[in-house]
Amino acid sequence: MTTGAVSAAVPRSRVNRWSIFGWAAFAFLIASQVTAIAISPPDRDMGDLQKIMYVHVPAAWMTMLSPLTVLVFGLRYIWKRREEDDLLAAAAAEVAAIFAGLTLMLGMIWARPTWGVWWTWDARLTSTLVLFLILVSYLALRALIDDRDRRAQWSAVVGVLGAINVPIVYMSVRWWRTIHQIQSSPATVDPAYVVGLRLNAFAMLFVMIFLIRQRYEAARLEREAEHALERVALGKRGAQ
To answer: How far apart are CA 90 and CA 231, in angstroms?
Structure first.
């Protein structure tokens, strides 16, 4: 069986549904950004710089949500030993690393004109950086271990460490003295900004789901191709 044959085994209707979902998710994200920027007035202190929060804040939320996905499917692999769970955990880890990197980058862009520095060892920034490094370590570990079962188990352990860090990131602004603002809610945010934040939060969630699904499908096809090659190699060895 070739890679093309494996690809053909994926139902076309399912591929089309996810393609439509992906296009819709990105279109919704663009529309949400445009709407949020258009309807929100400049902030009294930050001016139009405030509008970066429509990307930064939802990306930060996804940074904390996606490692929990890694945790759930990593532990499920340990429990049931289903290869699909390991692939889903790995896909979520890749997407989580992207969102964590985006969150840090946008935070630095916001910090420079607001705090006067690109980076400070603030509790929220530092804990987010630690989470990003854990996710990168997760991916590096998977690249270094060839045995599939051992790779999945060790990855699950690192995934647990990443998930443990999520509440630390969230509560860091309350547990330690920090220059980063505390968590916002619709009750504490100006009503002019709430709609934009909510729209972009849902849009970013849909994008995250789509990216995880796409990366999982790619990994699953790669794994099917590996299994097919192994069967061919074993067949040739047996014939000899």
So the answer is: 24
Cβ contact 172:129 at 8 Å: no
**Coil, strand, or helix at residue 88?**
helix
Give buried/exposed letters for 172-181 (b at 16+ CB in 10 A, else e). bbeeeebebe
- Measured between alpha carbons, how far is 132 from 141 in angstroms, rounded to an integer? 14
> Contact, 158 vs 134, CB < 8 A?
yes
Tokens of 44: 């009294």
Against a cut of 0.90, is the pTM above it? no
Q: What is the pLDDT along the chain (240 residues), one digit of tens a residue?
A: 444 444 444 556 666 788 899 999 999 999 999 999 998 888 777 778 888 989 999 999 999 999 999 999 999 999 999 999 999 999 999 999 999 999 999 999 998 888 889 998 999 999 999 999 999 999 999 999 988 899 999 999 999 999 999 999 999 988 987 888 877 666 667 777 888 899 999 999 999 999 999 999 988 888 787 767 766 666 666 555
What stretches of the chain show up as alpha helix (H) in DSSP?
Answer: 3-8, 12-39, 53-80, 83-115, 123-144, 148-175, 191-239
Residues near 17 by Cβ (< 8 Å), separated by ≥ 6?
none
- The domains located in the chain, with CATH, are 11-219 (1.20.120)
